[in-house]
Amino acid sequence: MKIILFIFLIIIINIYNNILVRGEIDFKVPCGDGYCGYDQVCYKYNPQEDVSVCLLADQFNLLELVQTFEKTWIDHYGDEYSLFRVKIQNHSNKPITHLYLATDFTFDLKEKSSYWNIHLDTWNNFLTLPNYVNSIQPFSYHLFGYIVKGKTSPNMIIRSITYSDPEIFANQQY
């Protein structure tokens, strides 16, 4: 009986921790030798020398994240779902080689596989570029999509961006 109660307690603690972790988007992001706080973006403008700074998110305009609602429907069980497409627009003159987009509990997917053209790190609730995307070229964009429960656009915050020197990037062998 004690073992069953112990297991039950562990399950309850895990559920509680998952709700707390998944319910918050306010966490620190590693940046250089320190961390960026909430409402800040880690801007890695010289990754070869690991030169990074934390910038206020509302003052960072080199990357634009545009979520577009496409459609909504109700399945035969009465559950409502919505399709969104997201455009990550690079407004800088350097390729973006890596980025972290933070999500929270509002990113409630229809199914575990209801997203495409993006990598989902479920442990940290980050979206990153998929492995087959080497970069988002200067003044270009990357599109991805997802299907969520309900019809509310989920919260997404740009948390970290890594740029590459165009000359170094152009000379890389693949």
Termini separation comes to: 58 Å
Instruction: Please report which band the strand proportion falls in: under 5%, 5-15%, 15-25%, 25-35%, 35-45% or over 45%.
Output: 35-45%
CATH topology: Immunoglobulin-like
- Spatial order of the strands in the main sheet? 4-3-12-7-10-9
**Which structural class should the secondary elements be placed in?**
mainly beta
Question: How many helices in DSSP terms?
Answer: 2
Count of folded domains: 1
Report the CATH architecture: Sandwich
Signal peptide: 1-23
InterPro entries: CBM_49, Dd_Spore_Germination_Stalk
Domain Carbohydrate binding: 63-151
Protein name: Carbohydrate binding domain-containing protein
Overview of the molecule:
By secondary structure, the chain is mainly β. The chain has one domain: Immunoglobulin-like. 15% of the residues lie in helices and 43% in strands. It has two helices and twelve strands, in the order αββββββββββββα. The strands form three sheets. It has a six-stranded mixed beta sheet with strand order 4-3-12-7-10-9, with no helix packed on it. Strand 3 (40-46) and strand 4 form a beta hairpin. The protein is globular and about 55 Å long. Residues 15-26 and 168-174 have low confidence and may be disordered. It comes from Dictyostelium purpureum. GO terms for molecular function: carbohydrate binding; extracellular matrix structural constituent. Residues 1-23 form the signal peptide.
